[in-house]
Specification:
By secondary structure, the chain is an alpha+beta fold. The protein has 3 domains: 57 residues, Arc Repressor Mutant, subunit A (Orthogonal Bundle), CATH 1.10.10; 47 residues, Orthogonal Bundle (Arc Repressor Mutant, subunit A); 109 residues, no CATH class. Helices cover 40% and strands 11% of the residues. The chain contains 11 helices and 6 strands. The chain has a 4-stranded antiparallel β-sheet with strand order 3-4-5-6, with no helix packed on it. Helix 8 packs antiparallel against helix 9. The longest helix is centred in the middle third of the chain and has 18 residues. The radius of gyration is 23 Å and the shape is elongated. The structure holds a DNA duplex.
Length: 253
DNA sequence: AAAGCTTTCAACCGCGTGGGT
DNA sequence: AACCCACGCGGTTGAAAGCTT
C-alpha cells in the first residue's frame, strides 16, 4: 500500500486510492461508461492519471472481480497455463474469469513459481511464436501409480529419442524427434520436434504410456478434451510438447 | 513487547502495439 | 512513411501486514 503523494510536475495524485476516489470513479463509469482513460479523470473530478484510473478499475473496482484465496483448481490452471504460455499473464487471466492478470502474476511469484524450481523445470519461453502445447496427465488411480517402480517401464534413457515415421499415423516421410526431459522419476516432459496432430499425439501416447494398465485412454481423452487446452489444437501443424506428471496428486496441489 | 525480517499485493513505470491522421 | 496518442501488458517497487526471534 503506497502512501498517497502528489506529483510536483503534474499535480496528479499517486499512491493508494481512497474510498472516496474509488466511489468517484465507480459512479462516473457507471453513468458515462469508459470512453477515454486519459480524459476521463478530469471529467470525473479525479486528480489521477488516466493510467492510474484504468489500473484501479481493471484490477480492483470492475464488477465481477473475484477476490480472496485461489482454489486448487485455479492454481492448477495457472500452473499448467504457465507451462503453455509463459509469462503471458493476460492470456492466463483470460482462462480464469474474475481474476486479473496482476493478481495472477502476484500469486505466481508468491506461491506457484517455486513448484518449478522444486522440480528443476525451466519456465517456457515467452516467445509468442512458440506454439508448443503443454498438457497434464492426472491418473485416476493414485494408489496403483504410487506402487509403480520408480522408473517407468519404457526405455527413455536417451535424452533425445528419434522415432521412425511409422510411429506417427499421419507423418509421411519425415522423421519425428521427441525430446524427453525427465524431471524425476515421476514427471516427464516431452517436446515433439516436428509438427504433430492430436492423432499423432494420441498414437504416441498409446505406444509409450507408462500407465497403460490404468485406463489411460479415458484419462487421455479427458485431457485432450479439456477446454483449457482446446485452443492449442486449432493449428494442426503446430509443434507439440506435453508434460506428464502425477505430482499434483502426490504433493497435494 | 519490540525489533527485524519476510511476504503480500496494490500501484507504478516503461515499452510495445495498433489505430488514426 | 512518419508521427502521435491511447491502451494494454509485464516487470518492478514499496508500504502494510504478518511472522519470527
Amino acid at each position: 500500500m503506497r502512501t498517497p503523494t502528489s506529483d510536483i510536475k503534474t499535480g496528479l495524485k499517486k499512491g493508494s486510492w481512497s474510498r472516496e476516489e474509488d466511489q468517484m470513479l465507480i459512479s462516473y463509469i457507471s453513468r458515462y461508461g469508459i470512453w477515454n482513460w486519459s480524459q476521463m479523470p478530469r471529467f470525473a473530478g479525479l486528480s489521477r492519471s488516466g493510467k492510474s484510473c484504468r489500473l484501479r478499475w481493471m484490477n480492483y473496482l470492475k464488477p465481477n472481480i473475484k477476490r480472496g484465496n485461489f482454489s486448487k483448481e485455479e492454481e492448477d490452471i495457472i500452473f499448467h497455463s504457465h507451462l503453455l504460455l509463459g509469462n503471458r499473464w493476460a492470456a492466463i487471466a483470460s482462462r480464469l474469469p474474475g481474476r486479473t492478470d496482476n493478481e495472477i502474476k502476484n500469486h505466481w511469484h508468491a506461491h506457484l513459481k517455486k513448484r518449478l524450481t522444486d522440480h528443476n523445470m525451466v519456465p517456457k519461453t515467452t516467445n509468442q511464436n512458440d506454439k508448443r502445447t503443454s498438457m497434464t496427465f492426472k491418473p485416476d488411480n493414485v494408489e496403483e501409480i504410487l506402487q509403480q517402480p520408480a522408473n517407468h517401464n519404457y526405455d527413455i534413457s536417451e535424452s533425445c529419442l528419434t522415432f521412425e515415421d511409422d510411429i506417427f499415423s499421419s507423418s509421411s516421410s519425415t522423421t519425428t524427434s521427441i525430446e524427453h526431459h525427465q524431471i524425476d522419476n515421476r514427471a516427464d516432459y516431452f517436446d515433439l520436434g516436428s509438427p504433430g496432430t492430436v492423432d499423432d499425439l494420441q498414437y504416441f501416447w498409446q505406444q509409450l504410456c507408462p500407465f497403460e494398465n490404468l485406463e489411460l485412454e479415458n484419462n487421455h481423452l479427458d485431457m485432450l478434451s479439456n477446454p483449457i487446452f482446446q485452443d492449442s489444437f486449432d493449428d494442426p501443424n503446430s509443434p507439440c510438447s506435453f508434460y506428464i506428471s502425477d505430482y499434483d496428486i502426490i504433493q497435494g496441489f
